[in-house]
Amino acid sequence: MGFQITGDPAADKVLDDSSFALLAAMMLDQQYPMEHAFRGPAKILDRLGTFEPAAIAGADPEEFAALAATTPAIHRFPGSMAARLQELARIVVDDYAGDASRLWTDADDGADLLRRVMALPGFGKQKAQIFVALLAKQCDVRPPGWEQAVGDYALDGYRSVADVVDHESLERVRAFKKANKAKKSPAKAVAE
Q: From CA 107, how far away is CA 69, in angstroms rounded?
């Protein structure tokens, strides 16, 4: 089927074709609309000509930051995200021989996979759980114990990008997040 997260078939194809692009897109999914974050790898590919981790890791930091900030930027904070993306690429090159999929293919179980993802820059526990759920739900990467590792993100429903398979599901995830935010901060939600 392929990913349908970005609303742009070409950007979704980059995610389909590159495990590193998928990992990087998840890293970019922070304080930025998810479909835009997941378009980030396609923007870098268009501008750099490659999305190989070694090329990104080895790029001049200032030039790479400028490339990431070119309109439309890869994120609302393009400079810091460019640096974080280069750091992520270096880890993939150094620890996984340039193959991001080894994060999950070499994992012993769901807990090990979650630990590996949490060790990456830009991945706290919740984001790591969402990424492991995305791998399970959309890539059929289901190491033993993945459900326990990701908690509620393993459930059916529309909780995160792991559940986005088309525009309708994207809107349902967005509504779920908005409702959750309102529950946590009712005064702020009313003000918005």
A: 34
